[in-house]
Amino acid sequence: MSRNLENLVVYQIYPRSFQDTNGDGIGDLNGIRKRIPYLHKLGIDMIWITPFYPSGGKDNGYDIKDYKAIDPLFGTMDDFKNLVKEAKDHNIGIMLDMVLNHTSTLHPWFQKALSGDKEYMDYYFFKDKPTNWESKFGGSAWEYVPHLDKYYLHLFDTMQADLNWENEKVREALYDVVKFWMDLGVEGFRFDVINLISKPKEFKDVVIGDARDQYTDGEKVLEYLQMLNKNTFGTKDLVTVGELSSTTVENAASYVNPKNKALSTAFGFHHLKIDYKDNKKWHIQKPDYSALKSILRTWQDSMEENSALMALFWNNHDQPRSVSRLGDDINYPFESASMIASMMHLLKGMPYIYQGEEIGLPNAYFESMDDYRDIESINMKEILSETFSKEDVVQSLSAHSRDNGRTPMPWDHTKHYGFSTTTPWLKFSQHNNLQTVSDVLEKENSIFNWYQKLIDLRHTETIVSKGKVFWPEDDHESLLVYGRSYGDETWLVYNNLEDKAVSISFETLPQTIILSNYNRKELKSSMTLNPYESLVVKL
Ligand code: GLC
Ligand code: CA
Q1: pLDDT-based confidence at 1, cuts 50/70/90?
Q2: Which of 2, 92, 352, 361 has the fewest CB neighbours in a 10 Å radius?
């Protein structure tokens, strides 16, 4: 079945942390199935599930050792089939995560390569000499294999070896993987770091930087995507989203421009780096809102020019929680979470909601360094300690560790928050006013309710799904304002990004309030927006 891309809303699930059903402290496929009615109530159309295939367990499933099976930790193939069916019965499609840039070093292909089999060595990059490229998880991007006297490339962990897409056999084998899941009724795919699949012909040392310019948006990315599309999901018109690492707006637009027949949508990360000092993840700064405005605008304008759709998102399993990052999860948990949500959801594109976002789940706030489980955080703790003070390491990790986005879902106030009957694999958020799903569902004006409204608006209002985005003049630093127009209808979306009141004035008094997170009932030509107020009006 092909779905309407323009008003589709996707919900992302990190299975390990969603719902455990067999008491091992790790979420599983049956847990997702159990919560389908909850997701249906929220109103989403599709769920993207991050990897649950057998893996080396080094990068929580992103180091796959068998592309066509289910890790027993998460369940069985029957559990998967039941999940697809249950979702379909609620008109929800399943989107799977395809990690096609690399495999685990435990994958049979790599194991054969290690045994010296030339055919399989050519599935990867084995070189006599390493370059000075850095791995995204720290350290060198090359690992030495003494018995072969060669180095293999791993842009991520040493156990994640990069695949050689130039090799036709590799491409064919990967098409086969995608088709395998299509045959099981999957309706969409998310392609992990897909703009890294085209490596340069020659591997060279770099003079400055970590070498990402050498392998990002390589020459053949678009061509490879077009082949993948033609040989797999394109035949059924399925929904796809590419994860684009350090891309440019031009490249992103080319991958998602419908006329290029590559991907339906893509994730770019520029708008999330506004709190990276000098573009460095572990160097934190206050979010730069003027950068945010210009990034959102540039990307929206470029997508419009290319008739393309960007993915709209703040959160995922690699990011800290937006309410803690950009909002105020102590004094304005509802106001800031709802403002952050509408600022993103009412743009043009395909919105993604990450588990927990709909209940305003905050960062992890772990008290001890030993509470972190993520490979990147564990590596960075060591690396940062060389140049950072102990306090700065703690501060950096607590602000930017991926574990912030991975704490288990607190469902209710029973022991282990209804997530499991035992201690979970990762601690719950230690925020001292943690709201659970049951708390939020009881409230009338809740963040859950706000997300329901945003989803509903996208489903029912053509101006939200198809309307043009425009950017009225505004000179207030902490205000982000944009407009939508379709036919003779116009909406304005006001977002106060900070905890200080801001005055605004309307040239013509709008007719209707579409949304207000302060329950506003009246408008005046000059008025004051409250801290983190989000106000959507129709002219
Ligand atoms: C993507 C995933 C991330 C993973 C990495 C390597 O960025 O979202 O979790 O570590 O790719 O596969
Ligand atoms: Ca389990």
Answers
A1: low
A2: 2
Q: Which atom of ligand 1 is nearest to the CA of 63?
A: 12
Q: Which class for 52: exposed (0-12), middle (13-18), buried (19 or more C-beta within 10 A)? A: buried
- Please tell me the distance between residue 85's alpha carbon and the centre of ligand 1 in angstroms: 28
- If 0-12 CB within 10 Å is exposed, 13-18 middle and 19+ buried, where does residue 202 land? exposed
Return d(Cα 511, Cα 38) in angstroms, integer.
35
Among residues 36, 118, 20, the alpha carbon closest in space to that of 75 is found at 20
Residue 474 tokens, joined = 């505004």
Q: Which residues are catalytic?
A: 192, 243
pLDDT tens figures, 78-96: 999 999 999 999 999 999 9
10 pLDDT above the threshold of 60: yes
Calculate the CA 75 to chain-centre distance. 24
- Nearest-angstrom CA–CA distance, 195 and 252: 9
Phi first, then psi, for residue 489 (nearest 5°) are: -100, 140
* pLDDT, tens only, 231-275: 999 999 999 999 999 999 999 999 999 999 999 999 999 999 999
Token pair, residue 191, equals 């392609």
Q: Count Cβ atoms below 10 Å from residue 422 Cβ, excluding itself.
A: 14
**C-alpha separations of 118 from 105, 111, 168, 401 in Å:** 16, 12, 15, 39
Residue identifier of the C-alpha nearest atom 4 of ligand 1: 62
Interatomic CA distance for residues 33 and 87, integer angstroms: 7
Amino acid identity of residue 171, one-letter, is R
Q: What is the DSSP letter of 124?
A: B
What is the Å distance from ligand 1's center to 395 Cα?
Answer: 23
**Cα 443-447-451 angle, rounded to 5 deg:** 125
Which numbered ligand comes closest to the C-alpha of 61? 1
Q: CA 445 to CA 58: how far, in whole Å? A: 41
- Is any atom of ligand 1 closer than 6 Å to the C-beta of 313? no
Calculate how far, in angstroms, residue 275's C-alpha sits from the geometric centre of ligand 1: 20
| Position 476 pLDDT exceeds 90 | no
Three-state secondary-structure class, residue 10? strand
Q: What are φ and ψ of residue 128, in 5° steps?
A: -70, -35
- What pTM did the predictor assign? 0.97
Q: What is the 3-state secondary structure (H, E, C) of 408-450?
A: CCCCCCCHHHHCCCCCCCCCCCCCCCCCCHHHHHHCCCCHHHH
For ligand 1, atom 9: residue with the closest CA: 318
- Check residue 467 and report its DSSP letter: P
Q: What's the whole-number average pLDDT of the chain?
A: 97
Query: Which of 64, 192, 247, 375 for a ligand 1 pocket mutation test, highest count of atoms within 8 Å of Cβ?
Result: 192
